[in-house]
Amino acid sequence: MSTPDPARRVAELRSRIEDANQRYHQHDAPDITDAQYDALVRELEALEAQHPELAASDSPTRRVGAAPAGRFPPVVHAVPMLSLGNAFEDGEVADFVRRIRERLDRDVLVFSAEPKLDGLAISLRYEDGAFVQGATRGDGATGEDVSANLRTIAVIPQRLQGKGWPKVLEVRGEVYMGRADFERYNEHARLHGGKVLANPRNGAAGSLRQLDPKLTAQRPLSFYAYGTGLVEGGTLPDTHSATLARLRDWGFPVSDLAEVVSGVEGLLGYYQRIGEARDGLPFDIDGVVYKLDDYAGQREMGFVSRAPRWAIAHKFPAQEQTTVVESIEVNVGRTGAVTPWALMQPVQVGGVTVTRATLHNADHVARLDVRNGDTVIVRRAGDVIPEVVQVVVDRRPPDARPWSMPMACPVCGSEVVREEGAAVWRCSGELSCPAQRVQAVFHFASRRAMDIDGLGERYIESLSELGYLQDVSDLYRLGVDDLLEMKRRADERDGTTPDTVKAGKVATKWADNLIVAIDRSRDTTLARFLYALGIEHVGESTAKALAQWFGDLDLIRHLPWPLFKRVPDIGGEVARAIGHFLDQPGNQQVIDRLLGRGVRIGDSHPPSSRLAEGLDLATLLVDLEIPKVTPVRAAQLGAAFADAQAVLDAPAHNLVTAGLPADTANALVAWLESPSNAGLLLRSAQAQGRLRALLPDSGGQPAGPLEGKTVVLTGTLASMGRDDAKARLESLGAKTAGSVSKKTSLVIAGEAAGSKLAKAEELGIEVWDEARLLAFLEQHG
Ligand code: IVH
What we know:
Layout: H1 6-26, H2 34-50, E1 74-76, E2 85-87, H3 90-104, E3 110-117, E4 120-127, E5 130-136, E6 142-144, H4 147-150, E7 168-176, H5 179-192, H6 200-208, H7 213-218, E8 222-232, H8 240-249, E9 259-262, H9 263-277, E10 285-292, H10 295-301, E11 311-315, E12 320-332, E13 337-349, E14 352-358, H11 362-368, E15 375-379, E16 387-391, E17 416-418, E18 425-427, H12 437-445, H13 457-465, H14 480-494, H15 499-502, H16 509-521, E19 523-524, H17 526-532, H18 540-550, H19 553-556, H20 572-583, H21 585-596, E20 600-601, H22 617-623, H23 631-640, H24 644-649, H25 652-657, H26 662-673, H27 675-694, E21 710-714, H28 722-731, E22 735-737, E23 746-749, H29 755-763, E24 766-768, H30 770-780
Parallel strand pairs: 2-11, 19-20, 21-22, 21-23, 23-24
Antiparallel strand pairs: 1-6, 3-9, 3-10, 4-5, 4-7, 7-8, 10-11, 12-13, 12-15, 13-14, 13-18, 15-16, 17-18
Helix pairs in contact: 1-2, 3-9, 12-13, 14-16, 17-18, 22-23
The structure holds 2-(butylsulfanyl)adenosine (IVH).
């Protein structure tokens, strides 16, 4: 194809390449992929070859990279740091070998073949064995002095080991960031709002060019040596491979993957092997490098403008490509985490066709500002899922709108909520969301929840996939026949039907046992039931606290969230999570079905009298977390107004008369203007009323016979499990603890009690045996 106006195209290409060089070398923020860059350079090279009249000494084809940005002192390289010519196809490798064979007139050519690490080229200068200076490549002639930053990289020797090193030695190599380090770094940045690195190479380059070495030290950088520069006052071996071995002896990391091979077949075989190993390597490589091994041959071959004639880089398919985002979708994980991903026009990345890429989380989308229709850079490296790393903003369609997280779960329609300060959004349909079903049932059945023995994850998965379980309540509809049928179908599907079954013998005992276990789980406690629901943030201890304080499922399931904050240790975040869960009609329906299918809570009781203190208007106004309404302001409001309705009806000036500063009054009025807030206030106040009515008579009943006591269990009890004993003691008001101290009020010693019993005796703490415990439980049960 001939270009209509070569001069114009050459100028265009030069300007585009210069721009890319600037972005890559000085700002560490490239806007085109390496493959695109290579294509531009090749096109320019071809045009310059066809049209010698257009050649220019300052063409980017004759220079390497960009002149330093000037933030660091310049370092003039005693031996220039050159670039490498590229080969993309086997034929180009064959041409490279042929050129050397012809010029050197040799039949057998021996090469050092090495991985081409994707990082940043560095020159390290050692004088009398001590590291004195390290510099970036810069434009090849002059680089930047980044010695202080290089000193923070642990694998770079400060002093050379062994002996025999030249008086002055420059070692050249690549600073890079390993994949795992890169992933870890980005994961941390994503969670804490830091700058996410587009790829390990940008990470390495950006890190080395930090002005503060302390920042570099925080970045996980590594280094591999691959050659030398200036050598004075000493000599090196005659071959490159022997020099690499020597560098290793002197303390430099040298890649284990380097090999000595001969001829085109040797080179292509190496390319193939490393290509196969590529995805599993702990660092990114973008190709391999072939270097004529003997220095005499290298000298004879010499250089063309920007690269040696004795070496070439053989590139792998690019790990980054540009493509267009067709839509941004969300995925709901097993735990309810809602994560965005991009559906894209198909593109080959690293030899694989990619159509989807992760966008990690909503913050990441916001930071990248990815929109539908955007041209983006996708990256796929190693086993890592392809990810969108950058948007090419110049190519954005004019009508592209910023993306935002959907309000409703795409799987079950429940509300999608975000925890304060967290990057993750979650579906609040824990019990009713099919995406969370397996996880929900697994948790529901676990030992500390409903304790259904024998219901493993595999069975749950099959029951769910084959349609026997829509939600946890379906467990209580299963019969032995359903289980046997499920097993038969799952085995058929997986091709795992046992020979005994084929011979007509079907094992049924497991199914009988499982049905018995499910049936037995129907009788449970409120704490176990609440824990089993799998509400975000509600672990066992929170579930127990809720059970102790409120006592009754029917009460709890209709409480607005601010009321949950009356339980010590439940803060706003946990209270809201419980509220979100209970607000989802799907979750409430599952609870109804569970009760309808025979789940019975045996330990319901009236709410704790300890709630009495916090059922007033002032406390509610604090619990609602209204901006500017501090406890002092809430107390003023509580004193001035009869009830919540009166606050709601009050004009702003009445709030001021009640003693509120104007800005607080305005904040409260603004808050109450939202119908959902006003509704929450009134519903919460009504719930307070219901609770008050349920409280044991005031002055009232002691909260439990073991109230205020700390009890330690030790040894084995014959009549009940330790968890059971703990639950019963706690239901009588005790706190249980794991070790005996002066604070312990009582120790229950079962069979074979050891050091805890001894300690209790030593401290003079009351000790009960099992019989005494049983008598006590009987009396208070
Ligand atoms: S040799 C004169 N060997 O690739 C020869 N370079 O495209 C100079 N690179 O600037 C380079 N691994 O940053 C050489 N084993 C290796 C390499 C390697 C990575 C980088 C280096 C160089 C660039 C050339």
